[in-house]
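[INFO] parsing input record for Transcriptional repressor
[DEBUG] input buffer:
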Amino acid sequence: MAQSDLNQALQHIRSKNIPLTPQRYALLEYLYTRDSYTTVKDICDALNERYPHINATSVYSSLHVFKQLGLVRELAVNDTFLRYEAAICS
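[DEBUG] output buffer:
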C-alpha cells in the first residue's frame, strides 16, 4: 500500500513539473513508508548517511512544497513543534 501511495505522490509531482531531486525522492519515500508522524530532525538523521549535505532548511523547503501539493500533512504540537506525515492518497 505504501508503495502505491508513493507512486501516486511521485506522479502528482511530475504532473506539476516540479523538479524531483534524489533528496526529495528520498524524503517522500521516507514519509510514505512510515506509519506515524515524524520530525524534521528525524528526517535529517535518517537521510544523512545517504545525503550528508541534507539539512533542516532543505527538508523544510521540500516539506512546504509537498504540503502545498497535498502530499504531506503538518501537525503543530504546542504551537511550536511541527510533525509531518504522508497524506495517503486513498
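[INFO] Strands lie at 72-77, 81-86.
[INFO] shutting down worker
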